[in-house]
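Retry 2 of 3 after timeout on previous attempt. Resubmitting structure tokens to design endpoint.
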């Protein structure tokens, strides 16, 4: 049995192609059928590596009894949230307005005009313990649709009006425009300080998410404001996470979140965006502290990406599942007997180091009982010598690779790849790892060469040779971020040119009246055009766009770009005043804009010893307010202000411009260091 998903390119939709539920993809054809049948629409949203999506699918959507009820009462649509984040965003807002919470699987009931009127996440097949079952909900909605349509349609209209208002930024009392300044930035730091878990690191209690964009803010706040508490919070969180079970100590990378407050027991999905943002955080934390454990963790993440997540074309896949062989975490956990058998005389030291116990630390999901399974995590100091630690991990990784591997969602997303490109380029520059920069370049070339339409416009997704839908704000903003980091790592002006081109396209296609940017272009299949404000698992598209505008303004000398960045911040001033932590990455940009920045322009032989010495000075310290260009003919076209800077004939030179003035060039690394320490101070 197949339904109308069999031709879909999305791995998530393919997972449901054999369901008895008559699923069809999002599109006008489905809504036309709903109008013709005069019935509501069940929109079910998830993604391929979503654990509870799998649970609901196995329990209900694969069940013939449930399918009969759903097919009778609804036109049923399946949607991959990662393919259509704009649709997901709109109906997630509706669900949160209706229920006060959200999550995936997200199931929303719509009128044939796409207006939402009811929403729920996971439901069992039948009612139990006071929780209404899916079949009962479907039957009840069918009765209401037949007998009380007017009430449903009135509710749907009221909810749609509220969703449109919230999506477009008119939250009552929150969205008053104005100036965003240092008081908002300081308020974000205070809120994070109040939320900080001084025992375990991180913010709040269980479940606990990495939220690396908050750590990036704290590193900048600590350095630029000379606030050691901010750096301490970031460092303690990063150290706790790298030691915890949320970190894959054998294969590298990080799981999606911890189910406990102490980072021990993960939800085992691995998402590309988490790897990217955490790679940035660990690389920059090393630059701030020179703690080698942070550098090792950054390399661990990067190596995982290059080994396990890279597509043959050079881009990166979206995610790996939590489940294998029908069990969450089965691929990753170990019992004591397995460790003993594999490691022999090194087993006791390894078990002591990684917290392996006979009773285990990982409970059976159904019964809550200990099974003898262990999630590896660092306990205290490592007792194995370095060479034996490497050998034991390699042995266990080799053994683990013989297991059935979790499903990999192999679609390529432009926005998440933009983050991976930025992270690898940044880590390659900071840690002096050219292979990471090369991998970032390969991914960027794939997205820019392959993921575009016949007019040269960026596409959001690609899989197995099949292009997807038009790119959205996050695709453009994150790709600009990625190629800007590539320019910083290589000084190849072609990357700066790409950043300018993509940023101009973003401004043209998504600009919102009153400042900021819409999530997507106007479309007849959307009931609203969101203007994203709050950070979620990732920084908001508007926050990233603001950073890019500031950075491009300083790279090119174009003051209009800085004004556009200021307009983004002004739009969200009310929100920043009410909930500063919710906009922490935008406030990160405000922090950078408010500090005295600087531009260093290099000129001369890139392969000379003097050039290498100057670059070492520039990369030694964490100076987030510093922008660096390399002067050549192409850069002079893109950044005309560099043409007027003097050069020392035949010598490597570095010119510092800060506070609307440029200093005379220096010709050696020590003089450059002195200049930076004098005028940037940080």
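Retry 2 succeeded. Sequence:
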């Amino acid at each position: 049995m197949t339904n109308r998903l069999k031709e879909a390119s999305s791995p998530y939709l393919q997972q449901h192609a054999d369901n008895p539920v008559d699923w069809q993809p999002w599109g006008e054809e489905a809504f036309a059928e709903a109008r013709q049948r005069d019935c509501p629409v069940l929109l079910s949203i998830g993604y391929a590596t979503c654990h509870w999506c799998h649970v609901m699918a196995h329990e209900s959507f694969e069940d013939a009894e449930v399918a009969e009820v759903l097919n009778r009462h609804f036109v049923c649509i399946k949607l991959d949230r990662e393919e259509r984040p704009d649709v997901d965003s709109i109906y997630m807002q509706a669900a949160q307005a209706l229920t006060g919470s959200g999550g995936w699987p997200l199931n929303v009931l719509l009128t044939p005009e796409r207006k939402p009127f009811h929403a729920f996440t996971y439901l069992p097949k039948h009612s139990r313990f006071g929780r209404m079952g899916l079949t009962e909900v479907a039957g009840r909605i069918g009765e209401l649709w037949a007998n009380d349509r007017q009430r449903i349609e009135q509710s749907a209209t009221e909810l749609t009006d509220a969703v449109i208002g919230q999506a477009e930024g008119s939250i009552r009392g929150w969205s008053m425009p104005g100036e965003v300044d240092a008081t908002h930035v300081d308020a974000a730091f205070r809120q994070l300080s109040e939320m900080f878990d001084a025992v375990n690191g991180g913010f709040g209690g269980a479940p606990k998410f990495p939220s690396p964009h908050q750590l990036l803010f704290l590193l900048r706040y600590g350095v630029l404001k000379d606030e050691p508490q901010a750096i301490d919070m970031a460092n303690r969180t990063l150290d706790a996470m790298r030691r915890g079970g949320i970190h894959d100590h054998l294969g590298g990378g990080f799981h999606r979140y911890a189910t406990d407050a102490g980072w021990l027991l993960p939800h085992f999905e691995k998402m590309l965006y988490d790897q990217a943002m955490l790679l940035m955080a660990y690389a920059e934390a090393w630059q701030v502290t020179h703690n080698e454990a942070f550098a090792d963790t950054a390399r661990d993440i990067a190596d995982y990406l290059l080994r396990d997540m890279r597509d043959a074309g050079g881009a990166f896949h979206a995610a790996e599942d939590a489940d294998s062989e029908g069990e969450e975490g089965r691929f990753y956990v170990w019992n004591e007997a397995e460790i003993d058998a594999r490691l022999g005389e090194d087993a006791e030291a390894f078990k002591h180091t990684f917290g392996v116990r006979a009773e285990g630390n990982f409970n059976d999901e159904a019964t809550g009982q200990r099974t003898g399974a262990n999630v590896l995590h660092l306990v205290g100091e490592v007792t194995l010598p370095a060479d034996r630690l490497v050998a034991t991990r390699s042995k266990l990784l080799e053994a683990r690779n013989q297991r059935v591997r979790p499903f990999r969602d192999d679609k390529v997303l432009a926005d998440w790849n933009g983050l991976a490109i930025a992270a690898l380029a940044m880590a390659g520059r900071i840690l002096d790892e050219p292979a990471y920069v090369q991998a970032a370049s390969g991914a960027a070339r794939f997205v820019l060469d392959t993921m575009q339409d016949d007019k040269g416009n960026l596409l959001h997704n690609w899989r197995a040779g099949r292009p997807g839908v038009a790119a959205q704000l996050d695709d453009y903003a994150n790709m600009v971020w990625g190629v800007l980091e590539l320019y910083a790592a290589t000084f190849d002006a072609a990357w700066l040119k790409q950043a300018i081109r993509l940023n101009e396209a973003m401004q043209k296609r998504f600009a919102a009246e009153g400042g900021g940017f819409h999530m997507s272009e106007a479309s007849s299949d959307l009931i609203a055009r969101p203007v994203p404000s709050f950070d979620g698992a990732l920084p908001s598209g508007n926050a990233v766009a603001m950073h890019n505008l500031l950075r491009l303004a300083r790279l090119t000398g174009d003051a209009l770009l800085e004004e556009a960045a200021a307009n983004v911040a002004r739009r969200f001033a009310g929100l920043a005043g009410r909930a500063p932590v919710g906009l922490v990455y935008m406030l990160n940009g405000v922090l950078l804009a408010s500090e005295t920045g600087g531009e260093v322009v290099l000129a001369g032989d890139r392969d000379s010893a003097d050039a290498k010495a100057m670059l070492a000075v520039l990369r030694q310290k964490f100076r987030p307010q510093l922008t660096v260009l390399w002067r050549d003919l192409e850069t002079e076209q893109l950044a005309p202000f560099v043409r007027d800077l003097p050069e020392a004939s035949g010598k490597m030179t570095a010119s510092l411009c800060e506070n609307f003035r440029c200093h005379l060039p220096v010709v050696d690394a020590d003089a450059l260091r002195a200049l930076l320490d004098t005028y940037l101070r940080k």
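Attempt log closed. Residues 94 and 162 are 8 Å apart (CA to CA).
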